Protein backbone atom coordinates (compact mmCIF):
# COMPACT_ATOMS: atom_id res chain seq x y z
CA UNK A 1 0.00 0.00 0.00
CA UNK A 2 1.14 3.59 -0.64
CA UNK A 3 2.78 5.44 2.25
CA UNK A 4 0.29 7.63 4.08
CA UNK A 5 0.48 11.40 3.46
CA UNK A 6 -1.78 14.32 4.28
CA UNK A 7 -3.72 13.88 1.05
CA UNK A 8 -4.07 10.15 1.51
CA UNK A 9 -5.04 10.28 5.16
CA UNK A 10 -7.97 12.59 4.32
CA UNK A 11 -9.45 10.09 1.85
CA UNK A 12 -8.79 6.91 3.85
CA UNK A 13 -11.90 4.67 3.97
CA UNK A 14 -13.94 6.97 1.77
CA UNK A 15 -16.09 5.21 -0.82
CA UNK A 16 -15.37 6.13 -4.44
CA UNK A 17 -17.12 5.02 -7.63
CA UNK A 18 -14.96 4.76 -10.74
CA UNK A 19 -16.76 4.39 -14.05
CA UNK A 20 -14.86 2.90 -16.95
CA UNK A 21 -12.75 1.33 -14.23
CA UNK A 22 -11.67 -1.82 -16.04
CA UNK A 23 -9.05 -0.31 -18.34
CA UNK A 24 -6.84 2.68 -19.07
CA UNK A 25 -7.11 5.73 -16.83
CA UNK A 26 -10.04 4.23 -14.94
CA UNK A 27 -8.22 1.05 -13.98
CA UNK A 28 -5.06 2.90 -12.95
CA UNK A 29 -7.16 5.34 -10.94
CA UNK A 30 -9.02 2.58 -9.13
CA UNK A 31 -5.66 1.14 -8.11
CA UNK A 32 -4.32 4.52 -6.92
CA UNK A 33 -7.46 5.23 -4.91
CA UNK A 34 -7.30 1.79 -3.28
CA UNK A 35 -3.63 2.33 -2.42
CA UNK A 36 -4.71 5.50 -0.60
CA UNK A 37 -7.13 3.48 1.52
CA UNK A 38 -10.33 4.26 -0.36
CA UNK A 39 -13.02 1.65 -0.85
CA UNK A 40 -13.46 1.43 -4.61
CA UNK A 41 -16.53 0.52 -6.62
CA UNK A 42 -15.42 -0.34 -10.15
CA UNK A 43 -18.08 0.14 -12.82
CA UNK A 44 -17.49 -1.08 -16.37
CA UNK A 45 -19.18 -2.87 -19.23
CA UNK A 46 -16.73 -5.79 -19.42
CA UNK A 47 -17.46 -8.47 -16.83
CA UNK A 48 -14.11 -10.16 -17.39
CA UNK A 49 -11.93 -7.07 -17.23
CA UNK A 50 -13.89 -5.57 -14.36
CA UNK A 51 -13.46 -8.72 -12.31
CA UNK A 52 -9.75 -8.67 -13.12
CA UNK A 53 -9.45 -5.07 -11.91
CA UNK A 54 -11.23 -5.96 -8.67
CA UNK A 55 -8.98 -8.99 -8.11
CA UNK A 56 -5.86 -6.95 -8.83
CA UNK A 57 -6.73 -4.45 -6.09
CA UNK A 58 -7.73 -7.10 -3.59
CA UNK A 59 -4.55 -9.09 -4.19
CA UNK A 60 -2.60 -6.03 -3.09
CA UNK A 61 -4.57 -5.58 0.10
CA UNK A 62 -7.04 -2.97 -1.16
CA UNK A 63 -10.82 -2.92 -1.02
CA UNK A 64 -12.74 -3.09 -4.30
CA UNK A 65 -16.09 -4.25 -5.60
CA UNK A 66 -16.96 -4.61 -9.30
CA UNK A 67 -20.43 -3.89 -10.70
CA UNK A 68 -21.14 -4.37 -14.39
CA UNK A 69 -22.63 -1.15 -15.79
CA UNK A 70 -23.14 0.60 -19.10
CA UNK A 71 -23.38 4.28 -18.13
CA UNK A 72 -25.62 5.04 -21.10
CA UNK A 73 -28.37 2.88 -19.55
CA UNK A 74 -30.20 4.70 -16.72
CA UNK A 75 -31.44 1.45 -15.15
CA UNK A 76 -27.93 0.04 -15.00
CA UNK A 77 -26.62 3.29 -13.53
CA UNK A 78 -29.29 3.28 -10.81
CA UNK A 79 -28.54 -0.36 -10.05
CA UNK A 80 -24.81 0.27 -9.86
CA UNK A 81 -25.21 3.01 -7.26
CA UNK A 82 -27.73 0.93 -5.33
CA UNK A 83 -25.17 -1.88 -5.23
CA UNK A 84 -22.49 0.55 -4.06
CA UNK A 85 -24.66 1.76 -1.19
CA UNK A 86 -25.70 -1.80 -0.34
CA UNK A 87 -22.05 -2.81 -0.15
CA UNK A 88 -20.53 0.19 1.63
CA UNK A 89 -23.44 2.22 2.98
CA UNK A 90 -22.64 5.46 1.15
CA UNK A 91 -20.80 7.15 -1.72
CA UNK A 92 -18.31 9.89 -0.83
CA UNK A 93 -16.53 10.47 -4.13
CA UNK A 94 -16.89 9.63 -7.80
CA UNK A 95 -14.55 9.57 -10.76
CA UNK A 96 -16.73 9.69 -13.87
CA UNK A 97 -14.23 8.34 -16.35
CA UNK A 98 -16.21 6.18 -18.79
CA UNK A 99 -15.88 7.39 -22.35
CA UNK A 100 -15.79 6.41 -25.99
CA UNK A 101 -14.18 7.91 -29.07
CA UNK A 102 -16.08 9.64 -31.86
CA UNK A 103 -13.98 9.49 -35.00
CA UNK A 104 -15.03 10.86 -38.35
CA UNK A 105 -15.46 14.21 -40.06
CA UNK A 106 -18.75 15.85 -39.17
CA UNK A 107 -20.02 15.75 -42.74
CA UNK A 108 -19.33 12.02 -42.93
CA UNK A 109 -20.59 10.86 -39.53
CA UNK A 110 -23.49 8.47 -39.32
CA UNK A 111 -26.17 9.61 -36.84
CA UNK A 112 -25.67 6.51 -34.72
CA UNK A 113 -21.95 7.25 -34.32
CA UNK A 114 -22.66 10.84 -33.25
CA UNK A 115 -25.34 9.62 -30.85
CA UNK A 116 -23.04 7.00 -29.33
CA UNK A 117 -20.40 9.59 -28.41
CA UNK A 118 -23.01 11.70 -26.63
CA UNK A 119 -24.78 8.70 -25.09
CA UNK A 120 -21.66 7.78 -23.12
CA UNK A 121 -19.53 10.93 -22.85
CA UNK A 122 -22.34 13.36 -22.08
CA UNK A 123 -25.64 11.69 -21.25
CA UNK A 124 -23.88 8.85 -19.41
CA UNK A 125 -21.90 11.40 -17.44
CA UNK A 126 -25.10 13.22 -16.52
CA UNK A 127 -26.86 9.98 -15.52
CA UNK A 128 -24.02 9.17 -13.14
CA UNK A 129 -23.81 12.70 -11.75
CA UNK A 130 -27.55 12.73 -11.16
CA UNK A 131 -27.29 9.70 -8.88
CA UNK A 132 -24.12 10.96 -7.21
CA UNK A 133 -25.52 14.40 -6.49
CA UNK A 134 -28.71 12.94 -5.04
CA UNK A 135 -26.84 10.50 -2.82
CA UNK A 136 -24.23 12.96 -1.61
CA UNK A 137 -26.81 15.67 -1.00
CA UNK A 138 -28.91 13.29 1.12
CA UNK A 139 -25.85 12.28 3.16
CA UNK A 140 -25.45 15.95 4.21
CA UNK A 141 -21.71 15.74 4.81
CA UNK A 142 -20.22 16.83 1.52
CA UNK A 143 -18.74 14.93 -1.37
CA UNK A 144 -16.42 15.31 -4.32
CA UNK A 145 -17.07 14.44 -7.95
CA UNK A 146 -14.38 14.47 -10.62
CA UNK A 147 -15.30 14.19 -14.28
CA UNK A 148 -12.69 12.98 -16.73
CA UNK A 149 -13.06 15.18 -19.80
CA UNK A 150 -10.18 16.01 -22.18
CA UNK A 151 -8.09 18.86 -23.52
CA UNK A 152 -10.45 18.42 -26.49
CA UNK A 153 -13.21 19.77 -24.25
CA UNK A 154 -11.37 23.10 -24.04
CA UNK A 155 -9.57 23.39 -27.34
CA UNK A 156 -10.37 21.88 -30.73
CA UNK A 157 -7.10 20.10 -31.42
CA UNK A 158 -7.56 17.84 -34.44
CA UNK A 159 -10.10 17.62 -37.26
CA UNK A 160 -11.88 14.31 -37.74
CA UNK A 161 -13.10 13.74 -34.16
CA UNK A 162 -15.97 16.22 -34.04
CA UNK A 163 -18.45 14.08 -32.12
CA UNK A 164 -15.88 13.38 -29.41
CA UNK A 165 -14.87 17.05 -29.16
CA UNK A 166 -18.49 18.23 -28.93
CA UNK A 167 -19.36 15.64 -26.29
CA UNK A 168 -16.37 16.67 -24.15
CA UNK A 169 -17.25 20.37 -24.40
CA UNK A 170 -20.70 19.43 -23.11
CA UNK A 171 -19.12 17.45 -20.27
CA UNK A 172 -17.22 20.55 -19.18
CA UNK A 173 -20.47 22.54 -19.15
CA UNK A 174 -22.19 19.88 -17.04
CA UNK A 175 -19.31 19.99 -14.57
CA UNK A 176 -19.61 23.73 -14.08
CA UNK A 177 -23.39 23.68 -13.80
CA UNK A 178 -23.36 20.93 -11.18
CA UNK A 179 -20.70 22.75 -9.16
CA UNK A 180 -22.76 25.95 -9.17
CA UNK A 181 -26.03 24.23 -8.29
CA UNK A 182 -24.72 22.17 -5.37
CA UNK A 183 -21.94 24.26 -3.83
CA UNK A 184 -24.03 25.33 -0.84
CA UNK A 185 -24.65 21.66 -0.02
CA UNK A 186 -20.92 21.13 0.44
CA UNK A 187 -20.52 19.22 -2.81
CA UNK A 188 -17.62 19.90 -5.13
CA UNK A 189 -17.63 19.02 -8.82
CA UNK A 190 -14.44 19.42 -10.85
CA UNK A 191 -13.06 18.03 -14.05
CA UNK A 192 -9.75 16.82 -15.37
CA UNK A 193 -8.67 17.59 -18.94
CA UNK A 194 -5.99 15.04 -19.73
CA UNK A 195 -3.74 15.41 -22.70
CA UNK A 196 -2.36 12.30 -24.39
CA UNK A 197 -1.98 9.40 -21.97
CA UNK A 198 -0.50 5.99 -22.64
CA UNK A 199 -3.65 3.96 -23.24
CA UNK A 200 -5.57 1.81 -25.68
CA UNK A 201 -7.52 4.87 -26.80
CA UNK A 202 -4.34 6.75 -27.67
CA UNK A 203 -3.02 3.77 -29.62
CA UNK A 204 -6.33 3.51 -31.47
CA UNK A 205 -6.10 7.19 -32.49
CA UNK A 206 -2.92 6.63 -34.49
CA UNK A 207 -4.77 6.10 -37.75
CA UNK A 208 -7.19 9.01 -37.31
CA UNK A 209 -4.98 11.77 -35.89
CA UNK A 210 -1.45 10.42 -35.63
CA UNK A 211 -1.64 9.34 -32.01
CA UNK A 212 1.43 9.72 -29.81
CA UNK A 213 3.65 10.74 -32.72
CA UNK A 214 1.63 13.87 -33.43
CA UNK A 215 1.09 14.70 -29.78
CA UNK A 216 4.80 14.73 -28.94
CA UNK A 217 5.21 17.63 -31.32
CA UNK A 218 2.46 19.63 -29.59
CA UNK A 219 3.37 19.23 -25.93
CA UNK A 220 6.05 21.52 -24.46
CA UNK A 221 7.68 18.64 -22.56
CA UNK A 222 7.44 16.32 -25.55
CA UNK A 223 6.23 13.62 -23.19
CA UNK A 224 3.18 11.39 -23.22
CA UNK A 225 1.51 11.20 -19.83
CA UNK A 226 0.61 8.16 -17.78
CA UNK A 227 -2.74 7.10 -16.38
CA UNK A 228 -1.29 7.23 -12.89
CA UNK A 229 -0.40 10.91 -13.29
CA UNK A 230 -4.05 11.64 -14.05
CA UNK A 231 -5.20 9.50 -11.12
CA UNK A 232 -3.02 11.37 -8.65
CA UNK A 233 -4.70 14.68 -9.55
CA UNK A 234 -8.14 13.11 -9.13
CA UNK A 235 -7.06 11.80 -5.72
CA UNK A 236 -6.01 15.31 -4.69
CA UNK A 237 -9.43 16.63 -5.73
CA UNK A 238 -11.04 14.08 -3.40
CA UNK A 239 -8.91 15.20 -0.48
CA UNK A 240 -9.32 18.05 1.99
CA UNK A 241 -6.21 19.64 0.45
CA UNK A 242 -8.45 20.81 -2.43
CA UNK A 243 -11.42 21.88 -0.29
CA UNK A 244 -11.67 25.34 -1.92
CA UNK A 245 -11.43 24.03 -5.48
CA UNK A 246 -14.81 23.79 -7.18
CA UNK A 247 -16.13 24.03 -10.73
CA UNK A 248 -12.64 23.87 -12.21
CA UNK A 249 -11.26 22.08 -15.25
CA UNK A 250 -7.67 21.13 -14.54
CA UNK A 251 -5.36 20.30 -17.42
CA UNK A 252 -3.17 17.24 -16.91
CA UNK A 253 -1.39 17.71 -20.17
CA UNK A 254 2.33 18.45 -19.88
CA UNK A 255 1.62 22.14 -20.51
CA UNK A 256 -0.31 21.74 -23.77
CA UNK A 257 -3.17 24.08 -22.84
CA UNK A 258 -0.64 26.79 -21.93
CA UNK A 259 0.66 26.96 -25.50
From TrEMBL:
What are the alphabetically sorted keywords of the record?
Oxidoreductase
Q: Which GO terms describe its molecular function?
A: oxidoreductase activity
Q: Which Pfam families match?
A: adh_short_C2
Cross-referenced InterPro entries = KR_dom, NAD(P)-bd_dom_sf, Sc_DH/Rdtase_CS, SDR_fam
**Superkingdom of origin:** Bacteria
Metal-binding recorded as keyword: no
Q: What Gene3D superfamilies does UniProt report for this protein, alphabetically?
A: NAD(P)-binding Rossmann-like Domain
Can you tell me which residues the record assigns to a coiled coil?
none
Could you tell me which residue ranges the Ketoreductase domain spans? Answer: 14-195
Family from the record: Belongs to the short-chain dehydrogenases/reductases (SDR) family.
Question: Know the name of this protein?
Answer: Short chain dehydrogenase
The record lists the lineage as: Bacteria, Bacillati, Actinomycetota, Actinomycetes, Kitasatosporales
Amino acid sequence: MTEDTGTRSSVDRKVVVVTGGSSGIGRASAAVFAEAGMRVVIAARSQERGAEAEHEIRSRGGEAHFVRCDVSDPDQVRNMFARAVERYGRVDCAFNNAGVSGDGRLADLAPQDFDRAFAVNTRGLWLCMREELRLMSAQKDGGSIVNNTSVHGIRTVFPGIGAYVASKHAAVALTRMAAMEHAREGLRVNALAPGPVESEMLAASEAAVGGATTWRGLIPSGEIGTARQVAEVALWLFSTASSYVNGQVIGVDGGFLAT
